[in-house]
Amino acid sequence: MPVLGRWPNPLELLFPSLCVLCTAPLDGVKAVCTSCLETLLPTGLGSWLDKAAVREGLDKAWSAFWYDGTMQSLIHLLKYNGHRRVGKRISEAAFHQLEGEVPWGHFDVLVPVPLHRTTRRERGYNQSAVLARTLGELSGLPMNERLVLRHRWTRSQTGLSVQERRANVEGSFRAAGPGAGRRVLLVDDVLTTGATASACAQALKAVGFSEVVVLTVATPIKEK
Ligand SMILES: [Zn+2]
């Protein structure tokens, strides 16, 4: 997979009707062809919070697909190559994968895990908000991008141990209250140890949200 910085692949701009993964004609769908999407492997984990290394503040966790090579390429395109439409496609797939499992009507609001404002400015958007917006359109739940703020910049969690990940993000989020007992479905691209989602959830609980469940498009938990 060629990596061309955070700008869209020029080939994709010239030929927007080709799949970003296999370059097959898209035939009416956006960004990723149906055959490529069908190769994504559902986790079938159900609610898997008990397997997450860091869980404080979280009540449940759902992850639609395994973070395999294909998913890794798609998330990379979404985060670093400006392909927002890839985000829309993978969150649609995640919604349909988890549709019968997640009690959407139980929640009051969808909240994307925020980026620090510096990262958001550099990237131009928050990839988790792209995912949450699509999940909101499909589920009918409102999405609120301003309920949680990442007030401290933190280094990437990649390559850190569980303890280092926990320490890296601890206290880096602040939530806007009052939560008034509302129930949050927190949305992120990948759940690895749970450290980031947990720090976010603790900030939400601190201002009175009663329940915080995290939903991610993918998890690599199987490989650990
Ligand atoms: Zn394809």
- How are the strands of the largest sheet arranged? 1-6-5-2
User: Which consecutive residue ranges, at least 5 long each, have pLDDT under 50?
Assistant: none
Q: CATH topology, anyone?
A: Rossmann fold
Would you tell me the overall average pLDDT? 91
Give the beta-strand count.
6
Backbone CA Rg? 17 Å
* β-strand amount: 15-25%
What can you tell me about this protein's structure?
- The chain is α/β, with parallel strands linked by helices.
- The chain has a single domain (41-223), classed as Rossmann fold, CATH 3.40.50.
- 34% of the residues lie in helices and 15% in strands.
- It is built from eight helices and six strands.
- The strands form two sheets. A four-stranded parallel sheet has the order 1-6-5-2.
- Strand 5 (183-190), helix 8 (195-206) and strand 6 (211-219) form a beta-alpha-beta unit.
- Helix 3 crosses helix 4 and helix 4 (84-98) crosses helix 6 (127-139).
- It is globular and about 50 Å long.
- 42% of the residues are buried.
- The mean pLDDT is 91.
- It binds zinc ion.
- Zinc ion is lined by residues 19, 21-22, 24, 33, 35-36.
Q: How is this structure best summarized?
A:
With 224 residues, this protein is of the alpha/beta class. The chain has eight helices and six strands; from the N terminus they run H-H-E-H-H-E-H-H-E-H-E-E-H-E. The model has no long low-confidence stretch (mean pLDDT 91).
